[in-house]
What we know:
Two copies of one chain form a homodimer. Chain A is of the alpha+beta class. Helix content of chain A is 40%, strand content 40%. In chain A, strands 1-2-4-3 form a four-stranded mixed sheet. The first copy, chain A, is built from two helices and four strands; from the N terminus they run E-H-E-H-E-E. At the A-B interface, helix 2 and strand 3 of A face helix 2 and strand 3 of B.
Amino acid sequence: MEVIKVSAKSRFTSVAGAITGVMREVGRAEVQAIGAGAVNQAVKAVAIARNYLQQDGIDAICIPHFAEVCIDNQERTSIKLLVEKR
Amino acid sequence: MEVIKVSAKSRFTSVAGAITGVMREVGRAEVQAIGAGAVNQAVKAVAIARNYLQQDGIDAICIPHFAEVCIDNQERTSIKLLVEKR
């Protein structure tokens, strides 16, 4: 599954569209955010995607967890939001 | 249901403890955050609470949504994280 990477500068409506597309296709989506600004955009995107998916009769839920990721040879702690059908 | 209010200065481990306690007692918890720093702490708290609750055999999921709240006579947009059993 491809990871949807979100930054503090990401437009949350665009991220919501990406989550919705992946959910419709695969039934689950993984969103990765590093830092408070990115996590905020990611959560807002999930809230919007949930509304979109409800119109398709999909009850989407979110499971947040910590994940270590390696960026430019540096280990960073990311928040991953796993979006799934309830 | 009492709302667990989270600020950017909240310790996420303490918030996780509060979520875990409410989940054990009531079976669902509502977490409110305004602003990126607060949302970040809230999401981290849910991730930790989920780990605690898994040890009790509870599969906790999270549903983020927007909610208008009134603070000091000003309308603010908050993010609410509804934590429920799957």
